[in-house]
Amino acid sequence: MTGFDDAGGKTPQPHFLGHRERLKERFTNGGADAMPDYELLEMVLFRAIRRGDTKPLAKQLLARFGTFAEVLSAEPDRLMEVRGVGEAVVTELKVVHAAAMRLMRGQVINRPVLNTWNAILEYIRAAMAFNEIEQFRILFLDKKNQLIADEVQQQGTVDHTPVYPREVVKRALELAASAIVLVHNHPSGDPTPSMADIDMTKKIVDGGQRLGVMVHDHVIVGRKGHFSFRSNGLLS
Questions:
Q1: Which of 4, 165, 178, 191 shows a CA-CA span of 20 to 30 A to 47?
Q2: Which are the contacts of 55, defined by CB distance < 8 A and separation ≥ 6?
Q3: What CATH number is given to the structural domain containing 118?
Q4: Opening angle at CA 190, ends 187 and 194, nearest 5
Q5: 3-state secondary structure of 21
Q6: In which band, very low, low, confident or very high, does the pLDDT at 4 lie, cut at 50, 70 and 90?
Q7: What is the tally of structural domains in the chain?
Q8: pTM for this one?
Q9: What are phi and psi of 218, to 5 degrees?
Q10: b/e for 205-228, b at 16 or more Cβ within 10 A?
Q11: Is 133 in the same domain as 84?
């Protein structure tokens, strides 16, 4: 792209203007699958950084956090440790993350869990796998095994979340849930359950059985995947 200077001669326009248009065209013609993570992240940054080349910042963010998903999931204060990231960039990243989560949640809410299990796994992994502190959430199911509520119950530290089995069952009864799915994350990345995880799950199962609330599964998520108690024979 070129313009004209005061003398009538052509002046070069910033190279990033043409680059932005080319990225938009590639996205329009080929979709996100035609673009590597750093280019998709560049486009996310366009709205926050109106002028300038967003490629260096996109690559810095990926180098710091690892993947596109981890950039979107990173805590605002950690994002702002990266040079060039200000409130506008953080807001844009968080809006995209929230929109993605809203879309994924809409695909599983009020639908039978058994028919949408893979979608639920994708949703909870996106919501929790990259968190830097442990979080414990519960998916509440009705008599038809439809997801009726999704609530974060506790947040803890990098390796521990306090969970109170009585409160878990109490909340299920308040929502008239017939079954629940327990979910928590391991910030270490390894979803293998600890003995504390196994013991806590048993206490919730026992408490739920006495009051007619079934624990359908306990899923632990991490960067390296997920672990299902039921699939691995820890729930009968």
A1: 4
A2: 19, 38, 39, 42
A3: 3.40.140.10
A4: 90
A5: helix
A6: very low
A7: 2
A8: 0.78
A9: -130, 120
A10: bebbeeeebbbbbbbbbbbeebbb
A11: no
